[in-house]
Amino acid sequence: MYTFEFLVGCEARCCEKFRMKRNMLAKFCETLRNVRNLRDTKKLSVEETIAMFLNIMCY
Question: What share of the chain is helix, strand, coil (3-state, %, to 5)?
């Protein structure tokens, strides 16, 4: 839930947290879905998974 708030909240917070704009993050996740066959799990969406990964990498 914490990560999801950054994905749907303020654009500036998304840029600050993940170092990319929300629309670029959405395109990146869509590319991973289509090219790498990444899928949502029962508990997490692809967007949330990638957001957590980026949060760790950008720290």
Answer: 70, 0, 30
pLDDT tens digit string along 20-47?
Answer: 888 999 999 999 999 999 999 999 999 9
CA atoms within 13 A on the CB side of 23: 0
Taking the C-alpha atoms of residue 58 and residue 35, their distance in angstroms, rounded to an integer, is 24
Q: Tell me which residue range forms the domain holding 29.
A: 2-58
CB atoms under 10 Å from CB of 40, counted, come to 12
Read off the pTM.
0.80
Q: How far apart are CA 5 and CA 13, in angstroms?
A: 10
Domain count, the chain: 1
